[in-house]
Amino acid sequence: QRCLSLIKATKFLNAYITVAEDTALKQAEESEKRYRTGQTLGNLDGIPFAVKDNFSTAGIETTCASNMLKGYIPPYNATVVQKLLDQGAVLLGKTNLDEFAMGSGSTDGIFGPVKNPWSYSRQYREKHVQHSHTENEDSNWLITGGSSGGSAAAVSSFTCFVALGSDTGGSTRNPASHCGVVGLKPTYGLVSRHGLIPLVNSMDVPGILTRCVDDAAIVLGILAGHDPKDSTTVQDTFKPFELPSFIDVSKLCIGIPKEYHTPGLSSETLALWAKAADLFENAGAKVVDVNLPHTHYSIVCYHVLCTAEVASNMARFDGLEYGHRSNMDQSTEVMYAATRREGFNYVVRGRILSGNYFLLKQNYENYFVKAQKVRRLIANDFVNVFNRGIDVLLTPTTLTDTIPYLEFIKEDNRTRSAQDDIFTQAANLAGLPAISVPTALSEKGLPIGLQFIGQAFQEMQLLTVAKWFE
Ligand code: GLN
């Protein structure tokens, strides 16, 4: 009830698209009954959680913040949602995002942009918001980053204890960094994608947003493991783990990728990154500079592969099976075209067009196949570094702290999005686990996260290092 009233009190953040008040209260009552009657409790019994609105939820509208799916009520739960419900967790509702998770701002969905709760922190307002009582009063509000901005804002504003996001190129870690929460992207294949409406099948992973690293580890323990409904999940059984309370980092080797010193990185983020490296060094860890020489190809490589998969994935939205269908039904062709024109925003339509261009017979080798080869080179950069004894990489998550919405929309949105993913996309191309952990506040009083990238399926090590740091 407290979470639900907090959701109402923070409605202006626009973090939630759907609040499942009735079912949430019912689930909470059942949980309370289990507790009172001494029944065995699930690992998350009674814990309220939120889910990004690109995961299917049985009986609850799932929109992907798109006109295409507005009104669509899935008949089943995504595996990750079901696993949380099976442990007694209480589903509060569905969170806001960029349409079909394409973006880095959470500004591009049909329900409007998500506001970063830090826009209302005293330090930021005292220094950066002119006091006035006009309608402009709120004009300096900040973006959450994205595309899982609704989930990040939901955790950051204390309306839930954990929220699911998705991470294809950074969409969990980017808003986590901007909203001052923990954002974990697991190894590709560790957590089921069944019921996550796809963006890029070969890179999508469900992400976990929490207030601390221990919470992320608990939730990962529940979500991870094989799912017969997702053939890309690991076959081995995953043993949930608890993070140690005493952590010794003195035997660790931390890598600092040279190529991540990139234009656009703010001096504040750079300083925090260096300070974090010193912290590890002072605790006895070895901190070494490493090379990931293909880093600067990752944005274009991601773009080609992402749009190619988008072109194919979005073909299912044809007005026949799901959601929106145009009234223009002179012919099937006309209906298809009108449905897709009315249903998708300009970002989605743009990506479908680019993707189909890269997949044309005469372009396929030069773009799609080449991008796949570059992807392998990017993945091999990591393999080489880890083979040389590096345990974990330490990098920034984002170039700067968050910025006001009015500034964000001034620039070419898509160019900025692309630049902002420079530190996060390579981990998706390589399938590696990565986590963003809040560090200090910027001079403006806004959160800045740093990222650790780990070796495939070495989440225990990654999370242990992150916990020591947090
Ligand atoms: N910003 C990237 C994109 O727009 C990543 C999105 C994501 O991880 N879902 O594709």
UniProtKB/TrEMBL annotation:
Instruction: Report the locations given in the UniProt record.
Output: Mitochondrion
Q: Does the keyword Protein biosynthesis apply?
A: yes
Top-level taxon of origin: Eukaryota
Query: According to the UniProt entry, what is the EC number of this protein?
Result: 6.3.5.7
The residue ranges of the Amidase domain are: 3-463
Pfam families the UniProt entry points to? Amidase
Q: Which residues form the active site?
A: K52 (charge relay system), S147 (charge relay system), S171 (acyl-ester intermediate)
A biological-process GO annotation = mitochondrial translation
GO CC: one term? glutamyl-tRNA(Gln) amidotransferase complex
Keywords, in A-Z order: ATP-binding, Ligase, Mitochondrion, Nucleotide-binding, Protein biosynthesis
Q: Which leading EC class covers this enzyme? A: ligase
Which reactions fall under this protein's catalytic activity? Answer: L-glutamyl-tRNA(Gln) + L-glutamine + ATP + H2O = L-glutaminyl-tRNA(Gln) + L-glutamate + ADP + phosphate + H(+)
Q: What InterPro entries does this protein map onto? A: Amidase, Amidase_dom, AS_sf, GatA
In the record, the note on similarity to other proteins reads:
Belongs to the amidase family. GatA subfamily.
Quaternary structure, from the entry: Subunit of the heterotrimeric GatCAB amidotransferase (AdT) complex, composed of A (QRSL1), B (GATB) and C (GATC) subunits.
Cross-referenced HAMAP family, in alphabetical order? GatA
PANTHER family on file: GLUTAMYL-TRNA(GLN) AMIDOTRANSFERASE SUBUNIT A, MITOCHONDRIAL (PTHR11895:SF7), TRANSAMIDASE (PTHR11895)
Known role:
Allows the formation of correctly charged Gln-tRNA(Gln) through the transamidation of misacylated Glu-tRNA(Gln) in the mitochondria. The reaction takes place in the presence of glutamine and ATP through an activated gamma-phospho-Glu-tRNA(Gln).
Q: What is this protein called?
A: Glutamyl-tRNA(Gln) amidotransferase subunit A, mitochondrial
Could you tell me which species this protein originates from?
Pelusios castaneus (West African mud turtle)
Q: What is the lineage of its organism?
A: Eukaryota, Metazoa, Chordata, Craniata, Vertebrata
